[in-house]
Amino acid sequence: MEQTSRGIHMKKNIVLLPGDGIGPEVTKAVSLVLRECAHEFNHQFETQELPVGGAAIDVTGSPLPNETLDACRKADAVFLGAVGGPKWDSQPIGKRPESGLLALRKGLGLYVNVRPVKLLEPLRGISPLKPERLGELDVEIIRELAGGMYFGERGNVVENGIERAWDTESYSTTEIERIATFAYGRAQNRSRKLCSIDKANVLTSSQLWRRTVVGMNAAYPEVKLEHMYVDNAAMQMTLRPTQFDVILTTNMFGDILSDAASALVGSIGLSPSASFGSGAPMFEPIHGSAPSLAGSDSANPIGSILSTTMMLRDAFGLALEADWVEQSLSRVLAGGYRTPDISEPGARAVGCTAFTEILREEMQRTLEHAERYGWGV
Question: 259 an active-site residue?
C-alpha cells in the first residue's frame, strides 16, 4: 500500500465468478464499479474471471474446477454472480451447480454469512409492508455457513419397495462458538441487540445452539441477548421487523429467513451478502440465477453493486469509496430510474446495462460534488 493525495493506494487481486443465468450480467456491473473506484482513488484492482456452477460443468464437467478454487484461495476477495438453472437440474446431488457453491464455501473456509436487510429510502414505496410497520428497516442476518443440514450426513435407501431419504442437522460447540463470536462483535458495533433464532423446543441441535450462545453472553455483558423460535421469527419479521437489529441463526434457517426478509425491501434483487472465514472473503447477491431473465438485460444489479460496497468497506477498509458508490446509487434511485422488477408507475424503467451506465455517470457527478463541497452534503 502507498499513501497518495486521496488516501491509501491499494493493490488487490479479485476473482470474479459470473456463473449462470443473470450472473454474468450483474458481474459486469461489479467490474464497472471496481474499475471506477480503482481509477478515481488510485487503487490497483486486478480482476480475473473464472467458471463456476453450470458454466463450469459445461466446460470442465465439474461445478468447481481446481483452477477456480486455487485462484480463489490466492485472491484478496471473490465475487460470485449466481449458479444454477434448469439445464443442470437432472444432475445428481454433488454434481449440480449448487454443489460447486457449497464446495467453494468449504474450500475457502467460509463459515459466516452476513446478509443486510436495509431499506433504500427512494424505494420505500415498493415494500409490501405499510410504512408504519416498515419503519427505518436496517437488520443484519448473521447466518452460519459451514455446518447444519447442508453439510450433514445424508442418504437414501429403499426398503420393502419404499424409498426413504434423510439429511442430518448437526452442530458442534466449536461451530456455534465461532459464528456467535462474530455475531456478538457485530452487535457490539451496532445497537448492542442480538436475537438468536433456533428451534430449541423441537431440535436437539438447537438446544445445544441456545446453551452455547447463552454461555457466551457473559463475555459480552453490554449486548442484550434474546431468543426466538424460527417460526415466530418469520412471523415477527413481517409484523414488526424493526424490533430486530442483529440476527444470529443456523445455515438453513438463515437461508430461508434472509430470502424472506429481502421481500421487505421490495425485491430479492436488492439484497447483498458477504461471507467470511479463514480464507478469502466472498461477496454475492442473494437473488440466484433467475434463468427466465437471462439474456434479456432486465436483471437488477443493485444487490451485486451493494455486495461490492461490502467488499470495499468490510474486506479492504475503503469506507469512503463504499460511501461514494452508495450515495451515487441513492441519487440514481431518487431520480426515478428502476429496473423492471422494482419499477413503479411514473418510474424511468431501464435495463441492467443502462442502469449501470447511469450509475457510472452519477458516480462522476457525486465525486465532483464531494470534492467541491465535501462528502455527505
Answer: yes
Q: Is pLDDT above 50 for 5?
A: no
> What pairing do the DSSP bridges indicate for beta strands 162-167 and 224-229?
unpaired
pTM of the model: 0.90
Among residues 20, 199, 220, 337, the one annotated as catalytic is 199
**Is 130 among the catalytic positions?**
no
Q: Which of 12, 20, 150, 198 is catalytic?
A: 150
Cell of 267: 425485491
The dihedral region occupied by 125, where left means phi > 0, alpha psi between -120 and 50, and beta the remainder, is alpha
Set 198, 255, 337, 341: catalytic member = 255
DSSP letter (8 states) at residue 92: P
Residue pair 290/280 in contact by the 8 Å Cβ criterion: no
Q: For 258-275, what is each residue's pLDDT tens digit?
A: 989 989 998 999 999 999
Query: Element (H or E) spanning 29, and its range?
Result: helix 23-40
Q: Which residues of 131-166 are buried (b: 16+ CB within 10 A; e: fewer)?
A: eeebeebebbbbbbbbbbbbbbeeeeeeeeeeeeee
Instruction: Name the 3-class secondary structure at 198.
Output: strand
The DSSP bridge pattern shows strands 7-9 and 110-118 to be unpaired
